[in-house]
Specification:
Blueprint lengths: L1 H6 L4 H21 L2 H4 L4 H10 L5 H8 L3 H11 L5 H19 L3 H33 L4 H54 L9
Helix pairs in contact: 2-8, 2-9, 5-6, 6-7, 6-9, 7-9, 8-9
Length: about 210
């Protein structure tokens, strides 16, 4: 493996750096975007039960805010529970946009890695071919080993760049879809809370 890295030339080092960074981001996002961490089960039902028992106070709201991303959205809505329905919905939407930014954290970086690693591989290819043509110009084609070094550098960097880019694109699209799915679930539960509090629905109808 080390021999392949050396044979690939200096372009291999930014490619390796991208691979380490991509792996770190993927593991972190998969861990963070677990459904139970983002939208804890039965959280809305528990909050509605507390509301119907008149046990919603500042302490309960702060505890809810620190509970999870869904808790943040619900807590902001509950702070405005005594106001008009539109105010409560607007506050939830504003907090929802902030939560969405948090859930999408690092995804742009992962997408950038997926885009630039093939270009780094292509750069290595170009550099390797330049070396080949430089050798041909100065020494002719009499030494196949020298020519092979440049060609191998070109092929190794191309393969390395693609091997990082392909899984990065796959995980980027998967994680982006995961974020969208979680946001839709949180939106539905927040709307449900608003409707129950303002008398449009009952908890039993959910």
């Amino acid at each position: 493996m080390f021999e392949l890295i050396v044979a690939g030339g200096w372009v291999m080092f930014p490619i390796i750096l991208c691979s380490v960074l991509a792996l770190t981001l993927v593991v972190e996002r998969i861990w963070t975007l677990q459904e139970k961490r983002i939208t804890p089960p039965q959280l809305v039902e528990q909050i509605i039960t507390l509301y119907e028992q008149n046990r919603i106070n500042d302490e309960a709201i702060e505890k809810l805010y620190a509970n999870s991303p869904l808790g943040r959205i619900l807590a902001v809505g509950l702070r405005n529970r005594n106001g008009p329905r539109d105010i409560m919905k607007e506050s939830i939407e504003e907090e929802g946009r902030q939560v969405a930014l948090d859930l999408e954290r690092y995804l742009n970086t992962l997408g950038t890695i997926a885009s630039i690693t093939p270009l780094l591989g292509l750069l290595g290819t170009v550099i390797g071919m330049i070396k080949v043509f430089a050798v041909i110009t100065s020494l002719g084609v009499g030494d196949p080993k020298i020519l092979a070094d440049g060609i191998s550098e070109a092929l190794i960097t191309t393969a390395a760049g693609l091997s990082i880019a392909i899984p990065s694109v796959m995980f980027y699209r998967y994680l982006r879809g995961r974020v969208d799915e979680l946001l839709l679930k949180m939106e539905a539960q927040a709307i449900y809370l608003v409707e129950v509090i303002h008398g449009d629905r009952t908890q039993q109808s959910h």
